[in-house]
Amino acid sequence: MDDFYDLLGVSRSASADEIKRAYRRLARELHPDANPDDPEAEARFKRVAEAYEVLSDPEKRARYDRFGSSGGPGMGDPFAATGLGDLFDAFFNAGGRTETGSKRGVDLETVARLTLEETVAGVAKDVTVRTAVPCDTCQATGARPGSDVARCGQCGGSGQVRQVRQSILGQMVSTSTCPRCAGEGVEIASPCDDCAGEGRRVEEQTYNVDIPAGVGDGSTLRLTGRGAVGPRGGGAGDLYVQVEVEEHPVFARDGDDLYADIHVAATQASLGADVEFTTIDGDITVDVPAGSQTGKRYRIRDHGVTRLRGRGRGDLLLTLVVDTPTNLTAEQEELLRQLAKERQEEVKDPGEEGLLGRFRSRFN
Q: pTM for the whole thing?
C-alpha cells in the first residue's frame, strides 16, 4: 500500500497549503485525458485523489497518521463520506462560486483606531490590508500573455461531471466537480509567469473608509467588494473594519453620553464661582453655587456623542469634585485656623501630628 505522503510528494509535516499545491500539480499531470496512451493513468489518478481526500481533512489525516491507510476504527472508505465533488470543493472553494465557475475571494478583516473626538464628529480613515488583487500581466485570466484559456475538454466548460453507477437499486447518477479543471470550466496550458496561473497576486492596498459619527468601540463596518478577489476573474469578498476607540484621559462614554469630573477648590465650592471647563466642542462656563459639595452633578445638553441612529447628540454629565488644599504656606494655614475658630470647628494644634508621631515611635 502506497504511503499517501509519498504519493503527493510531501513530507509528513507538510502544511495544508503544501498538500493542496502538490495535489493540484499531480491531478493535472496524471489525469487520464492527459495520458491517453497510459492504461494505468486512471488508477494512479484515483490513488492520488484518495491521498489528497484523506490528507486535506484534519480528522482523517490524524487517523491516517495514527493507523495508516486503514484509517482505524470507523474510517471505512475515504470516498464514501464526501465523494470527489466535495474533495474538489474543499480544495478550491475559498468563497462562493459565480455562474461562470469562478470563485469569490475571501473576506478580510482590519482595524481602524479612533480617538474619542473622531467618534463624535465622524472621520475618513485610511486602512491598509494585504489582499489579493487582479494580475495586470494576464488581465486576471491566469494565462501567459499571447496564450489562450481553453474550455475544459472533460466537462465542456460546465465545471461539473456526471457519473452513472450501477447498484442493486438500479442506475444512480451523481454530479461532482470536474477533476480536470477543478470546477472552473477552463484549462490553462501556459500559466502566467507573474501569478502562476492564479490570475491574482497579493499586495498591500489602502482604502479610505468613511466612519460615521457616533460609532462605538467594537463596532464593525462592512465594505462590500473590498476583500480579496477570487482566482481568474472571481469576484471580490468583503472587508470588515473593526473599530477600536482609544481611552480618553478626561471623558468616559456610556452610550451617547459622556462623563467627566470637574474639579474646584474648596474656597470656590464654599463661596461659589464660575468655573471654566473644556468639552469636546470647546470651553464652557459652569456655575458652581456657594456651598456646593462633592458629587453634585451637572448635565450639559447636546455635548455628548452624535447619535448613530437618530438625531442630535447625547449629553455631557459633569460630577463636581471639591479638592482639599495641600502644601499650605504658614499664612494660609493661619487663615484656615482663624476660620475654624470662628466656625467653632475643632482642628489639630500646630505640630500635634508630628509630636504624636515622635511619641509613638519611641514605644514601637
A: 0.59
At 358, is the pLDDT very low, low, confident or very high (cuts 50, 70, 90)? very low
From residue 20, alpha-carbon distances to 51, 204, 361 in Å are: 11, 25, 78
Diameter over CA atoms, the chain: 117
Residues 6+ away with beta carbon under 8 Å from 279? 300, 303, 316
What the block records as the C-alpha cell of 171 is 442506475
Question: In this structure, what C-alpha cell is assigned to residue 199?
Answer: 490570475
> How confident is the model over 30-67, as pLDDT tens digits?
766 566 677 777 778 778 888 888 888 888 888 888 76
Q: Which residue has the cell 472571481?
A: 234
For 112-176, the three-class secondary structure string (H helix, E strand, C coil) is EEECHHHHHHCEEEEEEEEEEEECCCCCCCCECCCCCEEECCCCCCCCEEEEEEEECCEEEEEEE
d(CA 267, CA 261): 18
**Which domains are seen in the chain, by residue range?**
4-92 (1.10.287.110), 97-136+200-247 (2.60.260.20), 252-323 (2.60.260.20), 330-362 (no CATH)
